[in-house]
Amino acid sequence: MKKASLAGAFFVSAIWLSAAQAFCPTAAGLTSVSVQRVVDGDTLRLTDGRNVRMIGLNTPELGKQGRGDEPFAVAARKHLQALVDDSGGRVGLRLGKQAKDHYGRTLAQIYSASGVNLQAQMLAAGLGFQVAVAPNVDLVACQQAAERSARQAGLGLWRQSPVVKAQHIQRSGFAIVSGRVSKVQRNRGGIWIELQGSLVLRVAPNLFGQFDSARLQALNGKQIEARGWVIDRSQRGGLPKGQRRWLLPLTHPSMLHMPR
Does 13 lie in the same domain as 138? Predict the structure, then answer.
């Protein structure tokens, strides 16, 4: 009976592993590194002293400076810790085309000892959001698929919709917002997509090549969903007349869901 149970557990585990690899296939040429500790749901501290920010994944924030933990922040850290432990405390690193962020953290895709992308596992568990910041966008499609599976199943963060209506934005930070486009314009500062309320989306000029400008221009009057880091422009010395308070820079087309 014990043998049968173990065999059954191995069989289920093998199926799960195969499903996880279907999202993001195993990568070649990985650098094996040792993890000192899991900082939060999307950041690792390595024994060589590097802090690694996981490309393609954004998890809820742990409490800092007197603020409480965001929902599922602790669950995300614990799940990532379990994945690292299952990998024997060592993971495979593949650096992004942009290898560091403005905080000096290493940017990388992370893989378990068995070759499974840990970002995809976190997304499939519903414990993080898929994000894309050019040029580190190689695994966007498979990580989107991992998130979509959790969203459809109502797992973790998707148990209740985290999507906020554009007119209800009240603070800066990461958000998934929905709203109707009231205006689209292009100038030297970028392509600006205004939503009903006080939120505007922006595609910077250096990212024009990543987006289909014609599709963006055709969004006027359409209902859309966007994600990214919202900025409060009123904290920059006041708002010029007619300027929207909240700005959400779009970093890749996958951060904007447009109707077909």
Answer: yes
